[in-house]
Amino acid sequence: MTYEELKKAYEESLQKCSELEKEIEDKDLRIEHLTELLIKRNKMLFGQKSEKGKYIRIF
After folding, report:
1. Using one digit for the tens of pLDDT, what is the confidence trace for 3-56?
2. pTM value > 0.90
3. What are phi and psi for residue 48, nearest 5 degrees?
4. How many Å is the maximal CA-CA distance in the chain?
5. What gap in Å lies between CA 30 and CA 24, rounded to an integer?
6. Could you give the 3-state DSSP secondary structure of residue 27?
């Protein structure tokens, strides 16, 4: 390979690497967002209920 071909291949590799890094960053943000939604959902479904303290047993 000539110097020019190697230089072109190197620049293409850098550009592809940059694109992949951006894609990874976007996916990481999406995962973080979905994780937060899942935590909120689980708290709503399985969290402490306000009704627990409303009723008093009388023996």
Report:
1. 999 999 999 999 999 999 999 999 999 999 999 999 999 999 988 776 665 556
2. no
3. -60, 135
4. 93
5. 10
6. helix
